[in-house]
Amino acid sequence: MILLMLSSRCSRRIIKPQGFTLIELLISISILGVLLAIGVPSLSEYMVQTRVDSQIAELHRLVLTARNTAINSGKNVTICPLSEGSCTGNWKAELSVFTNEDDDTKYDAADEDIVKVKGKVESGDTLKFNQARITYTPTGRLVSGANSLFSFCPSNYAELSRGVSISLSGRIYTTQDTDNDGKDEDRDGNEISCS
């Protein structure tokens, strides 16, 4: 009996159709279109900035790993792009960190160890370095050369370029925007560029 009373009460209600009218739907689509037009360019730049930050952090860790390995192992450690066991000048390629007994530009699998490998740079992006290789001594200093700089420049976003500086003493620094112009500068105040 109670069930019968409940069902009769429910059947008396008038159920109104629910949904959107055509005008409400068109207004919603228009608002969504405006928001997308504003947000997509910012999202694109944000994604590039994230890629740049990721590459710089990975380079910083790679160089730090090489320095720490040299200090802890008591051996020279080299970073360079390897091709068939020899260092090349193609810094966009895969970078290898390896112990370097002979202090040369070759990796000898018989008595040297690969410590870490960094994948190649994404197509279109540029990674430049002003020397053929980086070699750390067991004291944590560079074998030779002078202060050096990795410059990473994303494709079509030159203003987002960043870098990693390495001093002759072996210390590693990430570039920063020191003059607040939206572009990173090296330790001498020069803007990061890959040209």
What are its keywords?
single chain, 32% helix, alpha+beta, 195 residues, 5-stranded antiparallel sheet, 2 helices, 4-stranded antiparallel sheet, elongated
Explained architecture:
It is a single chain. The protein is of the alpha+beta class. The protein contains two helices and nine strands. The strands form two sheets. Strands 1, 2, 3, 4 and 6 form a five-stranded antiparallel β-sheet that branches. A four-stranded antiparallel β-sheet has the order 5-7-8-9, covered by helices on one side. The termini are far apart. The model has no long low-confidence stretch (mean pLDDT 84).
Question: How are the elements arranged and paired?
Answer:
Elements: H1 2-12, H2 22-73, E1 77-83, E2 86-87, E3 95-99, E4 114-118, E5 126-129, E6 134-136, E7 148-153, E8 162-166, E9 172-174
Membrane topology: Single-pass membrane protein
Biased composition (Basic and acidic residues): 180-195
Transmembrane segments: 20-40
Quick rundown:
The chain has 195 residues and is α+β, with helices and mostly antiparallel strands.
Determine the structural class based on helices, strands and strand pairing.
alpha+beta
**Molecular shape:** elongated
Q: What do the pLDDT scores average to?
A: 84
What's the number of extended β-strand segments? 9
The total count of helices amounts to: 2
Poorly predicted spans: none
Kindly state the percentage of residues in helix: 25-40%
In N-to-C order, the SSE pattern is HHEEEEEEEEE
Q: Mind summarizing the main beta sheet? A: 5 strands, antiparallel
Beta-strand proportion: 15-25%
Computed CA radius of gyration, to the nearest angstrom: 29 Å
What is the CA–CA distance across the termini? 87 Å
